[in-house]
């Protein structure tokens, strides 16, 4: 194995964190801001690159960092190493309510593609890169743009999803249609594309967007029930209307409903 072999435990229900146990000289990489706590004896280091074992040279580091910049992430990652005798633990927390999904990359052909903000942490040696879309339509309307994150290697990686998660195993040729924002990620071999919803009523009044994603097997797909973008939009909408009149959730009787439930500013 090129990646470090780590042990872990996922703790919690709706606001989870992952506790990783490191043997001497073992390490783990993580996105900046995901660190929660660590025991004495673990050293934290800021690294420039994609976190893999092959980014030793300066050009490799620059290329790896450049790939991360394209996904909207920081140029730098944090690495944590156990530098003492005996096992030590370090923990990383999910950024919002949902689930942490452990991925043994050896079970997915050494590659897993996920949305840009899903990656949480991984064993040192796992490469965190980018996956380009080769289709213009998928890039423009696919919800995730032209670029998604790509996790490669033979170690453990951890991704985070909002709400409740669903794991689907697709047979060869089997197709699953998904809201573009609800995709967490998919294994090597799954074909990702977009499809027009169709129909004038669906397009104008459906409220679900003009496109949905199509995922075709064979492979494994992970779906989330509450994408962060959906949560953020709802919070922003409520915050915008907090100081003024409610829009009544789209109802023509919204104002009357506020009078009935006492929500008025008389």
Automatic annotation (TrEMBL):
Organism superkingdom: Bacteria
The name this protein goes by in its record: TIGR00266 family protein
InterPro entries in alphabetical order: AIM24, AIM24_sf, Trp_RNA-bd_attenuator-like_dom
PANTHER family: ALTERED INHERITANCE OF MITOCHONDRIA PROTEIN 24, MITOCHONDRIAL, TRYPTOPHAN RNA-BINDING ATTENUATOR PROTEIN-LIKE PROTEIN
Pfam families in alphabetical order: AIM24
């Amino acid at each position: 194995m090129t990646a470090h072999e780590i042990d872990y435990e996922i703790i919690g229900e709706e606001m989870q964190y992952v506790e990783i146990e490191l043997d001497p000289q073992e390490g783990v990489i993580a996105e900046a801001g995901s660190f929660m706590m660590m025991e004495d004896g673990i050293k934290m280091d800021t690294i420039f690159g994609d976190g893999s074992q092959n980014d030793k040279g300066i050009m490799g580091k620059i290329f790896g960092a450049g790939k991360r910049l394209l996904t909207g992430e920081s140029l730098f990652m944090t690495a944590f190493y156990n530098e003492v005798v005996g096992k030590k633990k370090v923990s990383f927390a999910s950024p919002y309510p949902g689930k942490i999904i452990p991925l043994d990359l050896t079970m997915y052909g050494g590659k897993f593609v996920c949305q840009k903000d899903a990656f949480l942490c991984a064993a040192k040696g796992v490469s965190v890169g980018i996956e380009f879309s080769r289709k213009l339509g998928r890039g423009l309307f696919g919800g995730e743009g032209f670029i998604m994150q790509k996790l490669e290697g033979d170690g453990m990686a951890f991704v985070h999803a909002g709400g409740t998660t669903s794991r689907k195993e697709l047979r060869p040729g089997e197709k699953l249609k998904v809201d573009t924002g609800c995709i967490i990620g998919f294994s090597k071999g799954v074909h990702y594309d977009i499809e027009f919803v169709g129909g004038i009523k669906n397009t104008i009044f459906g409220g679900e967007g003009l496109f949905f994603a199509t995922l075709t097997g064979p492979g494994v797909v992970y779906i989330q029930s509450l994408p962060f973008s959906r949560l953020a939009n709802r919070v922003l909408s409520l915050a915008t209307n907090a100081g003024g009149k409610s829009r009544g959730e789209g109802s023509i009787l919204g104002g009357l409903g506020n009078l009935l439930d006492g929500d008025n500013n008389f």
